[in-house]
Design goal:
By secondary structure, this protein is an all-alpha fold. The protein contains 9 helices and 2 strands, in the order αααααααβααβ. The longest helix has 21 residues. The chain is globular and about 50 Å long. The two termini are 24 Å apart.
């Protein structure tokens, strides 16, 4: 079976989706900048498909100074307009403003916890939660943990962090391993 014929958790996939699934999805992430980037990319997905985000990811990262939280936290109206005018981005003013306020909240979490990594992984005592899913039908849109994390993030001033977005975020940063038991990439997440 060739690389293109591999059965992935999501079934047929674009090149971008396959690359994300195979190398990044459900792989534990501990770099604060990437943790911030993924939180913002997940929030930008609201109302859109993940495929759309993946197709625009490079442009979005470039427009947002590669999601350096300190830089994004300092954006003023001029910088917000620059981001909105950048080619290939999601042109949603509320989502761009949200990235700025989320960056400010992110920096507060770093000050309190030493790193966002320490904060987000404390919910599972630093361990990956393996849901051991047999089929995509077994995968929930959210769960008790994503509700808890969502509530805590909201208390800290984060936006676009509802429990469904947070569940997807926890998958994206590898807190959850939701690769199907039959997925050949399942062990890449360990």
């Amino acid at each position: 079976m060739g690389e293109c014929d591999v059965e992935r958790c999501w079934g047929s996939a674009t090149v971008e989706e396959a690359a994300y699934h195979d190398a990044r999805w459900c792989v534990p992430q501990h770099d604060d900048r990437e943790l911030f980037a993924m939180l913002e990319l997940e929030g930008m997905q609201a109302g859109l498909s993940w495929k759309t985000i993946l197709l625009k990811e490079r442009a979005i990262r470039a427009a947002f100074d590669d999601f350096d939280p300190a830089e994004v936290a300092a954006y003023d109206d001029v910088e917000i307009e620059r981001v909105l005018a950048a080619p290939g981005v999601i042109r949603n003013r509320a989502k761009v403003r949200c990235a700025v306020s989320n960056a400010q909240a992110f920096l507060e979490v770093q000050r309190e916890w030493g790193s966002f990594d320490a904060y987000i992984w404390h919910f599972t005592d630093g361990k990956v939660v393996d849901h051991r899913l047999g089929s995509m039908a077994d995968m929930p849109a959210c769960d008790e943990m994503s509700e808890i994390v969502s509530t805590d993030l909201k208390k800290r001033g984060f936006k676009f962090v509802g429990p469904v977005i947070v569940y997807s975020y926890l998958q994206g940063i590898g807190v959850y391993n939701d690769h199907l038991l039959s997925c050949p990439y399942r062990n890449h997440a360990e």
